[in-house]
Design goal:
Helices cover about 45% and strands about 20% of the residues. The protein is α+β, with helices and mostly antiparallel strands. It has one domain: 3-Layer(aba) Sandwich (Glutaredoxin). Strand 4 and strand 5 form a beta hairpin. The radius of gyration is 15 Å and the shape is globular.
């Protein structure tokens, strides 16, 4: 019961830390040659709650179900980033992430356009169909479909 009382506070804090979605200019070596690349980032900490694990599982399922060929071709790239891992902290810092978060980053040429989907992810963490459909729509939109 105590966990249920803390959940709204945790969700509020997680959302608060990931609200800002600035545009970043990529360094020349970071961008692939293809016209447009859609990156999907799932960020997490070492210790994760049930909804955090669900978001990861739903994100993986969406990517594997709908975007296998795009991931093989490099049009779509899926990253799972542990914000507490020293080797991955720079990626988390790039998106100003300190906890669980879901981002989609559309790269066109040298321009990057990240979108924060964390609120969407928590809102649909209890509805798999809505999560998969919604994330698919975001990625499709990024691909120009």
């Amino acid at each position: 019961m105590k966990n249920l009382l803390y959940m709204p506070v945790f969700i509020f804090l997680a959302t608060l830390f990931t609200l800002e979605t600035p545009t970043y200019a990529a360094s020349p070596g970071d961008v692939q040659v293809s016209e447009k690349v859609v990156e999907v980032y799932y960020f997490h900490r070492n210790r994760r709650c049930g909804p955090c694990r669900t978001i990861e599982n739903f994100t993986k399922k969406t990517m594997e179900t709908y975007f296998t060929s795009e991931m093989e071709s490099g049009e779509v790239v899926f990253h799972i980033v542990n914000v507490e891992n020293d080797d991955q902290k720079s990626v988390a810092e790039k998106f100003s992430v300190v906890s669980t978060a879901l981002f989609i980053n559309i790269i066109e040429g040298k321009e990057e356009n990240p979108s924060n989907l964390t609120s969407f992810a928590y809102r649909h963490a209890r509805n798999e169909d809505a999560f998969l459909t919604g994330l698919k729509e975001h990625v499709d939109k990024g691909l120009g479909k």
